[in-house]
Amino acid sequence: PILLGVSPFGMIYGVLALSAGLPATLAFAMSSIVFAGSAQFVGAQLIGSGAPGIVIVFTTFVVNLRHILYSASVAPFLKHLGLRWKCLLAYVLTDEAYAVGVTRFVRETAAPSRSPHTHWYFLGAGLAQWGAWQASTAVGIALGAQIPPGWALDFTVALTFIALVVPALTDRASVAAALSAGIVAVLVAAWPYRLGLIVAAIIGIVVGLTFEARRAPARRRS
Q1: Residues 6+ apart with CB under 8 A from 114
Q2: Which residues contact 6 (CB under 8 A, 6 or more apart)?
Q3: pTM of structure
Q4: Of 50, 169, 200, 205, which has fewest CB within 10 angstroms of its CB?
Q5: Element holding 165 (H helix, E strand)
Q6: Over the stretch 177-188, which tens digit does the pLDDT of each residue have?
Q7: Using a CB cutoff of 8 Å and minimum separation of 24, what contacts does 206-213 make?
């Protein structure tokens, strides 16, 4: 089911990357090297709009900050592995692979006898998603090459990000962060070099962390 959910986004990315002006080889290389859906959508749009490299790097870094939390969460289960294994698993660490992997790790921890090879399950989940993402990106690029240049596909970028953001709005902190970042992004949209995106991202992070900090004492009291 996870692969079925990932594939449409891979195809949409392939189409949008071409519509943003990226060559097919670069669009596919992003899927192979970066392998991070949200960052690829953002990066393709920023590259297509001529944004400076520092803006592209910082914005995609902010988009992927959640992977730090994912890594910290699975680190206790992978501490017995060598550096090569950890680097490989870090590469295939995505939202979906994390969800599948951490569920298996927790289940193994609760079992009477824990298998020392659970990381292979994590790797398998990540590689399966990687393959589906590459294939769907290729399909999207092939479809995008057939779309007439006069067709405006810019609106699909907004629809895609709505589909990515809405499921993440699970509490007040995330809602406040998204609203504040969105409002600021609109207000500073005219800033040169897409610098408004960086400002909006920073403000969204600060607002989200502020809400989380205020909620922490209430959790401890309860």
Answers
A1: 108
A2: 37, 96, 129, 132, 133, 136
A3: 0.69
A4: 50
A5: helix 155-165
A6: 889 988 998 998
A7: 207/176, 207/177, 207/180, 207/181, 208/173, 208/174, 208/176, 208/177, 209/173, 211/172, 211/173, 211/176, 211/177, 212/173
